[in-house]
Amino acid sequence: MGENGLTADVEGISLYYRANGAGYILVSSQGNSAFNVYDRRPPHAYLGTFTIDGVTQTDGLDVINLPLGARFSLGLFVCHNGAAAPYPVELVKWGDIAAALGLPVETQYWDPRHPRIADVPPPALLPISLRVVPNPARAGARVSFHLPRETHDRLAIYDGAGRRLRLLHEGTLAAGTHAMTWDARDGDGRRVAPGVYFVLLERNPLPSIVGRVVIVE
């Protein structure tokens, strides 16, 4: 048993951003199916622990402060549920979690679609040459990116557990701007469940680029 009840494995960590360096670090305590919350600012004080009904053995998680429609007006917490196959991604209202722990909610500060307003130095940000629009999305999204040179590329969609759901493209692309559409369906043509998904552009021999898209009902 670790400090503040943190129990191995610790396989999910995410940041909730607030202004002036404030916010929270969320950590998956997989061994006891709980989630610990710490202050984002040093010395990272422990702020509390919460659980999600029916969720166990979480490998990965994420959180966003932005309002995502009426259902998630105070932000969204998502996590992998290892309780039983098919191991779904669970969506939880961040406002409910924050209220239970007495955490301030801030819905106007950090927007990953506009990283210039974040208090993270630009060199530390993911490359901004990959765009996903709209985001959040319902029926699907358009993925656009710019290649400075001809490369062999693979563009694919992954779920929060790291499983590849859909291969959108594999082959050589010329230098320039490209756009492809994902219809929010997996490789078997089934619509994916609401949640957070990742867009991975592998560029050989250039570094890969990762984007994120939220699919809503």
Quick synopsis:
This protein has one helix spanning 94-101; strands at residues 13-17, 23-29, 34-39, 46-50, 61-64, 76-80, 89-93, 130-133, 141-147, 151-158, 164-173, 176-182, 195-204, 209-215. It is mostly beta strands and 217 residues long. It starts with 12 loop residues before the first strand and ends with a strand.
Topology of this protein?
Layout: E1 13-17, E2 23-29, E3 34-39, E4 46-50, E5 61-64, E6 76-80, E7 89-93, H1 94-101, E8 130-133, E9 141-147, E10 151-158, E11 164-173, E12 176-182, E13 195-204, E14 209-215
Antiparallel strand pairs: 1-2, 2-3, 3-4, 5-6, 6-7, 8-9, 9-12, 10-11, 10-13, 13-14
Describe the structure.
The protein is built from one helix and 14 strands, in the order βββββββαβββββββ. It is globular and about 50 Å long. β2 and β3 (34-39) form a beta hairpin. It has one helix spanning 94-101; strands spanning 13-17, 23-29, 34-39, 46-50, 61-64, 76-80, 89-93, 130-133, 141-147, 151-158, 164-173, 176-182, 195-204, 209-215. With 217 residues, the protein is mainly β. It is 4% helix and 41% strand. The protein has a four-stranded antiparallel beta sheet with strand order 1-2-3-4, with helices on one face. It has a four-stranded antiparallel beta sheet with strand order 11-10-13-14, with no helix packed on it. The chain folds into two domains: 3-101, Beta Barrel (Thrombin, subunit H); 126-215, Immunoglobulin-like.
